[in-house]
From TrEMBL:
InterPro entries membership: Metal_Hydrolase, Phosphotriesterase
Family: Belongs to the metallo-dependent hydrolases superfamily. Phosphotriesterase family.
Pfam family, one: PTE
Keywords annotated in UniProt: Hydrolase, Metal-binding
Coiled-coil intervals, chain numbering: none
Name of this protein: Phosphotriesterase
N6-carboxylysine PTM sites in chain numbering: 127
């Protein structure tokens, strides 16, 4: 549900939603975390190879959910977009506290101001994170700042749900208390908690549901992915669905990697649902009524 003047903010500039094309709605080209030592995604050449493989299958855009302080490398993203022709959407925001060793420095940040500034320069969404089956103080702090940044810019907010949990808590806070319209919220990792009744309630709210990480074979719920998508489509919620690869470690790149979405998952959806999930829905979910970019 994008407005007539809405655009998608990519690292190279604002783009009409209709030009976004086939989209991986949740992935990482660059990522570094104290929780994943030695598994950093930090190689521009490897990222370029991944993008070219994705583009060879018809991929036109990737939404990178790497938030502030986790090695998102916006300048490298811009160069990769120029070299490959793939549209790249970057994130601001903040992950769970465990990803940031210096908690004292983190608490000194004015998060709303930080998020809004990055949205004005290179970022096209705010990424935040819940806790397991609830929202801790850190999650509430970051989501409150994300809502302020949304109200200042219109930016979409994408949410990491730990093992797919606490999505209703997130909607109650972001949409109920903080006034963010549900269609500006993307709920991530729902494939990891395959409660079909819950999924239908979330979709009925108007939020977007991101099923990501289908290539992560360590998740015991991966085999439910297609059943979840089919059930939501049958219930009339096909226009709320997004898919992403969510590559988070160097070991996962190319194993099977970003192209897996288009090579193996897309053919099993059928042409109509595939068009919605990979093209029409991302164009709506990541569009916003942006003010002009800051120079």
């Amino acid at each position: 549900m994008s407005g007539a003047g809405d655009t998608v903010r990519t690292v190279l500039g604002d783009l009409p939603p209709a030009e976004l094309g086939v989209t991986d709605s949740h992935d990482h080209l660059f990522l570094a975390s104290a929780r994943l030592p030695g598994q950093e995604l930090a190689d521009p050449d490897a990222a370029e190879a991944e993008l070219r493989d994705f583009a060879a299958l018809g991929g036109r855009a990737v939404v990178q959910w790497t938030p502030y302080g986790m090695g998102g490398r916006p300048d490298d993203l811009a160069e990769l977009s120029r070299r490959t022709g793939v549209h790249l959407v970057a994130a601001t925001g903040l992950h769970q506290a465990a990803h940031y060793p210096d908690g004292a420095a983190l608490r000194r940040l004015d998060l709303a101001e930080l998020f809004t500034a990055e949205l004005g320069r290179h970022a096209g969404l705010v990424k935040v994170a819940g806790a397991y089956h609830g929202l801790d103080a850190h999650a509430r702090w970051t989501m409150t700042a994300a809502a302020e940044a949304h109200h200042a810019t219109g930016a979409p907010i994408a949410v990491h749900h730990e093992l797919g949990t606490a999505a209703e808590d997130v909607l109650e806070l972001l949409c109920g208390t903080l006034g963010v319209p549900p269609h500006r919220v993307v709920l991530g990792h729902l494939n990891r908690f395959p409660d079909l009744g819950l999924h239908r309630r979330l979709a009925a709210s108007g939020a977007y549901l991101a099923f990501d990480g289908p290539s992560a074979a360590n998740h015991a719920t991966d085999h439910h992915l297609l059943d979840c998508l089919a059930a939501l489509a049958d219930a009339g919620h096909a226009d709320r669905l997004l898919l992403g690869g969510d590559t988070t470690t160097a070991a996962a790149r190319g194993n099977p990697g970003m192209p897996y979405l288009l090579r193996r998952i897309r053919p099993r959806l059928g042409p109509d649902l595939a068009h919605l999930v990979f093209t029409a829905n991302p164009a709506a979910a990541f569009a916003a009524p942006w003010a002009p970019r800051r120079r």
